[in-house]
Structures are given as structure tokens and as C-alpha cells.
Write a structure and sequence with these properties.
Elements: H1 3-16, E1 19-21, E2 26-29, E3 34-38, E4 47-50, H2 51-57, H3 66-73, H4 77-89, E5 93-95, E6 109-115, H5 140-156, E7 162-168, H6 176-191, E8 196-203, H7 210-218, E9 222-226, H8 232-235, H9 247-259, E10 264-270, H10 278-288, E11 292-296, H11 304-322, H12 328-331, E12 332-334, E13 353-356, E14 361-363, E15 376-377, H13 384-388, H14 400-404, H15 408-411, H16 427-465
Parallel strand pairs: 6-7, 6-13, 7-8, 8-9, 9-10, 10-11, 11-12
Antiparallel strand pairs: 1-5, 2-3, 3-4, 13-14, 14-15
């Protein structure tokens, strides 16, 4: 059988095949000419398409054949087939069967929030730490036991490849001299067992000196810095004990971290009071090139209309900045969503993550400190990962709305601690803004592709003129 005959026969079969669409596929607009098609549950499914290609995609109803779609498009058959095959490659369509998302293999890791101290020099208005004024600090006995449990976890599970530690308070650097050598030893013990040790200090960034800077740099420890706005917008919530604002001190210390090459990222808690300053903050963070994450405050009612209005301003600033080189996917993150790495385990608490309080009690989440029931404690004989898994009960069932939602895998009903009837109390905020985030990712991808194309065309023009 000749190759020509084989190809003709294959083409004949292909023409008769029914094209079926991925049921989770969505489309988002980039501009008047370009759109993106993607399945939110798949990491690399996004395809940038022209408006007419999107119109063709929308014609796919699980009944029409390849031949019928070619006729509807009124385009060259070869171009249509190339388009369909590009969608098939990323499981957005298939022929004669409905495409299914392939589960991505996960790296096995352990995430721990460790509450080292209640001592704090601030009195933030939305603070969740109910025991803040006790000034207690984790004892050496508890710290030593954590060390033992970390090593035990590694030795009992040879597949464990990373341990991520979030050191918090209170203000973590208020007790720096107390814990610095212990944490350094933890890092060494983890890494000598060929496991990655990722450590971040969650700080209000009002305490910093040369000794702390040197320590962070030498031990490759990063800092999560709380910054809620520019000037008064930050100072509305984040104040010293004497009620004076902290913005100037935070910026002063951020610049020291930057100057000394210490890794850090910005964590912003968005409230009804501070959201009006979101645009100014976004502009400031983009100009500085700082990585940042926006978190909507939990445990108190939020004005969704107001939230959407000011996020729109922020997203517009990001969109315009992408043209100037803003690396959106690398620098921006929205809390409670796994947009860049789709995963229904949005935080891993009760699965591969837990929170350890001052007394060694293990909790599902740090928001349970001082008010919720512990899952157990680190002085038990049970390995730490098994104690943590007792928290799976907190995830519960998602609402029927969530199960039908195309964003189920990237939102998963958001934080399980604050769900109402199996879904996030700000569900409408997520539904409104997740497509806008995808649109910005698509804009970034398109901008890169067009710049690359212009660069190639320029080289060709120069070569031809020579």
C-alpha cells in the first residue's frame, strides 16, 4: 500500500469523524481580535486564537463532523485541520470521543505553618491571633520535638521531596536571636537527607537589622512581607501598639532587603477599608518589580461590588503594564486560587499541610489557634503527616454549584474554614475575576509571541537587505 493511498484513506476517515469539545473549556477575550481557549483544570491547555477561530470552536457541539466544520468555516481545509489538531494536542477537543483531563503527577511535600511566638509590636485591626497579648514563645522542648518529627517524616517516607516551613507569629523577628540557630539546624538536617528545605519568615517588616539580613541571605531564607497599600491605605489597618502607621518603616526595610539580595514577596490583605487603594498599590508594586499576592480578608463581610470595582482598576493597570514587560504570571498571585498550577488542594491543609502552635498542638489551620480543636500534638508517637491527615474532615462536600463550575479545580470552594453551605461566601467575586486573570495570562502569552515574531521578521529584513 503506497504512502499516498494511506494518507488519502486517513484523510477520508478524519473527515467523517465527529468533533467533541472538552466540557470544561472556556474562552476569554484578550482584545477585539484575539481570544484564548482553555480548560482551567489543565496547566498547559491555553491556546490563543483569532476571533473567527473562536467562532468555529463555538460551532463544535459534539454532532458536527470535521467535514461539516470545514464547510462552515469557509476556510482552507488544511488550515482548519491545523487548528483542530492544535486544540486536540491540549485536550480541548477530540475526535469521536469527549476529551478528559489527565491528572498531573504531584511532587510529595510537607507544608508546615509554625507559630513561633505571640509577641508582636503591631496591633493590626483584622488580626486572627486571639492570644496575641500573652507574649508567649515556643519552648525549646517543642522546637526540639518539631525537629525530631521533621526527620522522622523524611525517614518514614522516601518519596518526600520537599518540606516547606512558614515561620510566623506575632512578629517572627521579635524573637530572632532565640530561634535563628535552631532553624538553621533544621535546614541543614533536612537538606543533608536530600530533601529540599523551603523556609519563609512571615513578617510585618518593621524589625530588621544587619544581623537578620545576613542570616536570611546566608541561609537562603525568604520573607513574606505584609503590605496592604500605599501610605494611609496600609496605615488604616497595620499600626504599632501606639496606633501610629507602619508604612514608612516597612518600605524602608523592604528597600534594605532588595539592596542586599534577600528574596521576598508581598502579601496584601484586602479589606473594605483598604480596597480603594488597590490601584495605587498595584502601580507601586509593578514599578518596583516585587512579586505580590492579594488576599481578601476572611471572617468579616466584604462589599463584593466595591471589591470588583477596584480589582478592575488593578487589572487594567496590570494589562497595560504587560506591554511594557510586566511578568504577570511570575509576579502576581491571587490567594485561594491555584490558577497557575490547577489543583483542588488549594492550600493542602489537612492533606499535606498543617499548623503547629506554641505548645506543640497541631491544628488544621493557623486560624484555629486559640479557638479551634487541635488534631493532635507533636509529642504523639504518630508521624506528623498522619496527624495532619486527621484534618481532611474539614474539607467536607462542595456545593452542587461548585461541582458544576468550570473553575472547580482552581477554586475548590476556596478556604474550607470560611465556606458557607459548601462554597465560598465571595463566590461571585471569584466567578467575576477568574476569567479576567486568564485574560491577563493570555495577553502576556500573546505579547511574548508577537514580540518574538517581530524580532524574527526584523532579522529576516536585515538579512535580505544585506
Amino acid at each position: 500500500m503506497s504512502i499516498l493511498y494511506k494518507n488519502l484513506n486517513k484523510e477520508k476517515i478524519m473527515k467523517k469523524m465527529v468533533v467533541k469539545k472538552n466540557k470544561k473549556a472556556i474562552s476569554v477575550k484578550i482584545d477585539d481580535r484575539f481570544y484564548a481557549i482553555l480548560d482551567p483544570s489543565l496547566k498547559y491547555s491555553m491556546r490563543i486564537v483569532l476571533k473567527e477561530q473562536l467562532e468555529l470552536f463555538n460551532q463544535i457541539d459534539g454532532k458536527k463532523s470535521v467535514e461539516e466544520l470545514v464547510e462552515l468555516s469557509k476556510k482552507d481545509k488544511k488550515l482548519v485541520m491545523q487548528f483542530l489538531m492544535a486544540l486536540k494536542e491540549v485536550d480541548l477537543i477530540d475526535f469521536d470521543k469527549t476529551p478528559k483531563a489527565k491528572e498531573t503527577k504531584k511532587i510529595k511535600h510537607l507544608n508546615l505553618w509554625i507559630h513561633m511566638t505571640d509577641k508582636c509590636n503591631l496591633r493590626c485591626k483584622y488580626c486572627y491571633v486571639s492570644t496575641l497579648d500573652t507574649y508567649k514563645t515556643m519552648s525549646k522542648e517543642v522546637l526540639d520535638r518539631i525537629e525530631y518529627k521533621l526527620i522522622e517524616a523524611i525517614e518514614k517516607d522516601k518519596e518526600l521531596s520537599m518540606i516547606h516551613l512558614k515561620l510566623s507569629g506575632g512578629e517572627i523577628f521579635s524573637k530572632f536571636d532565640y530561634w535563628k540557630d535552631i532553624v538553621k539546624r533544621w535546614k541543614h538536617l533536612i537538606e543533608e537527607r536530600k530533601v529540599v528545605a523551603s523556609i519563609v519568615c512571615l513578617s510585618n517588616m518593621t524589625i530588621l537589622n544587619e544581623k537578620i539580613i545576613s542570616y536570611l541571605k546566608q541561609n537562603n531564607i525568604s520573607v513574606g512581607v505584609s503590605l496592604d497599600g500605599v501610605g494611609e491605605f496600609h496605615d488604616r489597618n497595620r499600626v504599632f501598639i501606639n496606633q501610629k502607621g507602619t508604612f514608612k518603616k516597612v518600605i524602608e526595610n523592604l528597600e534594605k532587603l532588595e539592596k542586599n539580595g534577600v528574596k521576598f514577596s508581598i502579601s496584601t490583605t484586602v479589606t473594605n477599608e483598604s480596597v480603594e487603594g488597590l490601584g495605587a498599590l498595584t502601580r507601586f508594586l509593578i514599578k518596583k518589580g516585587y512579586p505580590f499576592r492579594y488576599t481578601n480578608v476572611k471572617g468579616e463581610p466584604l462589599d463584593i461590588d466595591k471589591l470588583n470595582r477596584y480589582y478592575d482598576i488593578s487589572f487594567e493597570i496590570m494589562k497595560n503594564s504587560i506591554e511594557d514587560g510586566f511578568r504577570f504570571s511570575n509576579l502576581y498571585n491571587q490567594c485561594d486560587l491555584t490558577i497557575h498550577n490547577p489543583d483542588k488542594d488549594i492550600c493542602g491543609m489537612g492533606k499535606f499541610g498543617g499548623a503547629i502552635y506554641l505548645d506543640g498542638k497541631v491544628y488544621f489551620c493557623h486560624t484555629h489557634f486559640g479557638r479551634g480543636e487541635p488534631l493532635g500534638d507533636i509529642f504523639e508517637d504518630e508521624p506528623l503527616p498522619k496527624i495532619i491527615k486527621r484534618g481532611e474532615k474539614y474539607w467536607g462536600e462542595l456545593s452542587e454549584d461548585c461541582k458544576k463550575c468550570p473553575y472547580e479545580i482552581v477554586c475548590a470552594g476556596a478556604c474550607p474554614v470560611y465556606r458557607v453551605n459548601g462554597k465560598s461566601p465571595i463566590c461571585e467575586f471569584y466567578k467575576n475575576n477568574i476569567p479576567k486573570i486568564y485574560s491577563l495570562i493570555a495577553k502576556e502569552n500573546l505579547t511574548k509571541a508577537l514580540k518574538k515574531k517581530r524580532k524574527i521578521n526584523k532579522k529576516i529584513t536585515i538579512r535580505e537587505s544585506n
